[in-house]
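Interim report, section 4.2 (structural modelling).
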Amino acid sequence: QAGLADTCSVAQTPGHDLFGYVGIEAVLDQMRRKTMKAGFEFNIMVVGQSGLGKSTLVNTLFKSKVSRKSCSPNYEEKISKTVKLQSVSHVIEEKGVKMKLTVIDTPGFGDQINNENCWEPIVSYVNEQYERYLKEELYVNRKPRIPDTRVHCCVYFLPATGHWLRPIDVEFMKRLGKIVSIVPIIAKADTLTMEERQEFKQRIRQDLKANGIRVYPQTEYDEDPEDRILNDKIRENIPFAVVGTDKEHQVNGNKVLGRKTKWGIIEVENVAHCEFTNLRDLLIRSHLQDLKDVTHNIHYETFRVRRLNESNLTGESEGWREKNRGGE
Amino acid sequence: QDKNARPLSLSGHVGFDSLPHQLVNKSTCQGFCFNILCIGETGIGKSTLMDTLFNTNFENFESSHFEPKVKLRAQTYDLQESNVRLKLTIVNTVGFGDQMNKQESYQHVVDYIDTQFESYLQEELKIKRSLHNYHDSRIHACLYFIAPSGHSLKSLDLVTMKKLDSKVNIIPVIAKADTISKSELHKFKIKIMSELVSNGVQIYQFPTDDETVSKINTAMNGILPFAVVGSSEEVKIGNKMVKARQYPWGVVQVENENHCDFVKLREMLICVNMEDLREQTHTRHYELYRRCKLEEMGFTDTNPESKPVSLQETYEAKRHEFLGDLQRREEEMRQMFVQRVKEKETELKEAERELQGKFEQLKRLHSEEKSKLDEKRRSLEDEINTFSKKKAAAELLQGQSFNTNANLKKDKDRKK
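Predicted structure of the assembly:
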């Protein structure tokens, strides 16, 4: 098909030919410089039962100890009685690009005997961040750059059972899928053979479809045919089966990230072994900005519409912390 | 709760260094918007300069000098260079400086700029909005064309620029600079800049905070205002065709930096600072407009007790007030309507009664007349009766006498 220019939305005003070079394309460089100077923010949430390797995976993704587990000096593996969200932020830099990465952990999720409504604290957290942003956006005197704490991506860890989605998985993804971009993954996938893996993935995809769960990348937000082709390929492959580790081993003279077992070394970054690189490429190398855009242009706007309509109906603002009670 | 984000080092290549590219790719796909406002007297060369700047022919037509008011004419064009699509809007003033009384000249320009801010603000305040699709019509750069008098700024120039400096990025240029000699030009530039400074006019400063461009920007800041010459015609110089103006005494080459500052203007406006111009418009000028507008409407961030109030609450309070107002007025209107209906009813009833009365009266009159007529008729009939009786009697008498005469005649005849 035609090049990038033709696949983008067609302009309605008459096109004008330039007789020679003007220098308009220099604006791309200008933009790049400005964004590099300003830096980026990225907030990723990891959800899943304890023991599924959430912290390890996040550390592997960002090649540094970004998870809360690795930062807290006296971290104890205790199962917390309620789902408590905790976030930790780090600034990481690569080739001049600075990123403030915030990892939001959800210890206690799915760990109780009775897990009913365990998604509620998470739903509240996500909405609270939208609320915070909205408040800042509505100020008369507002900051030139509103701090963004909204959850850009929620990685949901599915245990590698090989069967179907469990009720807790369905309930969680149904609810959260409406307000945040969910990326489901099969955790600790080294317990599945290739055939089991394919079957499991297919079943999960069927389950997701049957329950009307929309996961990232959502079909409705494909911007143009080229996007669609790219995203369709991803959609055919999710959920990615991943393995995480921070240990390195020697394989064929190279140092690779892997898990050493008695029956072999599982190379994390080898696409024949697991889909870690696919996940990393999706989350970081190709779709990071898109995740942020979808959060800002779609999820946040949906929240905003709902919120502004709500207060119009009730005539009261709910949830604002500093309320003005005088002059009623 | 701003957490202290600790710096961390990476043990390998993660790949988020592609972020600026991801961001830029998205923008490339969507295209960029750039809006330039050209203010200057009729015939000063605004359209020609735009043609020259963007290396194209924008199909302009000459304006007359007899416009009664200053108007603004905006035209949007789609330009493309390699994979960058630019939606360029050029707004030209029409009739600026032509009126006898120039007091209102700048107002239309100010109003136009405010209108664009207002549209954006309205979109931003909508409940269901689509900002990322919005065609941004806010003016990013304002080229102010100074007439090449060689002396100083006109009072219209100062007044206009003063009114605009907090609303838009002003880049002053000296138009038709080929009419000024080099030495005069130098003095002219100094005079202009000192007048601007002494009148407190804040023109756009090319940003010097980014090391990549601070050097060139600082240098350019010192060369303002740019002395430009525009031309869409080409002249052969050596073995190349260059944009130039041919005079009997020589050729002024537009892209020759010894002849004029055109190249510098293009460099600064497009190649180096286009993005900054857009950013300043959004984060400084638009925010100022928004703040003033909201404060005007009565919104604040803190209430009289200095407790923070959200825009949301003020908005709701106002909405309540407004709705209450609306209800009250609706009630009033309803009352008025009911009242009017009552009045009309009474009116109509009154009229009905009147009509009824009239009708009765007429009826009476009519029956009176009728009875009169009846009487007359009766008397006439009586007369007729009497007359016919008399007639009958007379006829009888006549008949009798005729018979008697006839008998007498008969008798007379027999006697003969």
